[in-house]
Amino acid sequence: MSKSIVRALKCRECGQEYPIEPTHVCEFCFGPLEVVYDYEKLEGKFTRELIESRPQNMWRYKELLPIDGEPKVGANNGFTPLIRADRLAKALGVKELYIKNDSVCYPTLSFKDRVVAVALSKAVEFGFTTVACASTGNLAGSVAANATAAGLESYVFIPEDLEQGKVLGAAVFGTNIIAIKGQYDDVNRLCSEVAGKYGWAFVNVNVRPFYAEGSKSMGYEIMEQLGWKAPKHVVVPMASGSLCTKIDKSIKEFIKLGLIEDTGTAVYGAQATGCSPISKSVKDGTDMIHPVKADTIAKSLAIGNPADGFYANRVIKESGGWCEDVTDEEVIDAMKLLAETEGIFAETAGGVTLGCTIKLLESGKLPKDEPIVICITGNGLKTQEAVINEVAKPRLIGASLKEFDVLAEADGVKSND
Amino acid sequence: MKLRVYLNFDKEKVTEPVIWKLAKKFDVITNIRTAEVKEDMGLVGLEIEGKTEVVEAAVKWLEAQDGVHVEPIEQSIVEG
What we know:
heterodimer, A: Rossmann fold, 13 strands, B: 80 residues, alpha+beta, four-stranded antiparallel sheet, 5 strands, 26% helix
């Protein structure tokens, strides 16, 4: 079962097909390229039993990821917990709620470890020795860590005002970390020029079609962990909109391969109000995405002109889902609610996803009596600035039982005496 | 050089012949490869070909137009 079933790269707009190469744009119409597969080659061979017999990482679904043979990078990435979140469900008045918790994804605590594992494995297959990315945090850390573990040189481009924790979270891996002076658009422009000029694998430029496929592993895991069922409703955070489309693709693939039944999954998108071009397009009933200048604490979702916005919009509408967006205050409230009910410290993007879920429940777009899966994609330790002034400070006492007794009494705690 | 960009046009710019003006002002070959124009927004995938400095000046001019948003074809490469 090592023969790849990848057929080609195919333009999502005009359908033109290209050989498997490090390229991402259609030469004819500039449309984005996507990996397409010959699924019929897997018929009867890719079974639940085969998948279950494999180690618990994202590569147990390797036939549906665009690599040749075994992964070259990130062999242990993925397979995060899907937890039944009963305490949060109770707080929200929901019957059945699950959290797919990629805040503990190996090795850098975000779902980016999935996409980077595929991108870098493919980069090695193509013969690249240097990999690069432009990032506001999670991707930078993931590229740096996965590259160094595979003996690859890496260059990571970040905006100059990035939080110290995120700079450290990439720099510690010995990557070449480059801070760019200027606005978000300047970083974007420079990196697109660098990507064109140097012979590097830029994970989200020239190997983007492969990179993006890594997100499907999150969807596969959800379905397997639900007991080989598709979620009825799934809420996904959106930056470029790619994850949203790939979760949808993963479900359609499992249905096509007979691994699950088609029970109709509605996909919902979550954005921060300060950067909500996709949410706005869905709410306005249009399919055109108006670029915005991002202004939100959810920096990992702050993409003002989302590359996959149009496709995310389509997936959401066709699946019967909806979009919502939340303010920075609502993000923080949701982060705290998730932490205090389920013991999960998600990054700001997680606050966006839960915050939007709450709004979708309130508006009735999400039914309270059907199973819902929420996708948490990153760890709160990376965005501590967001909540540092929102949580209780430690109460300081001397190392004396008397002082503690006073405190305990004030709390209404009874002693054994 | 050949440069590939996406142009987003705001509502007020949709009816203006921006690409015609560009080709009049600068010695570049403009080649529209994809386009979707609606009454409140336009999106054009454009290839601009010419001497490097002329192409760069042409892009600068485009960026200076109110209601026109210029993105390299490798758009949104900064990720979370």
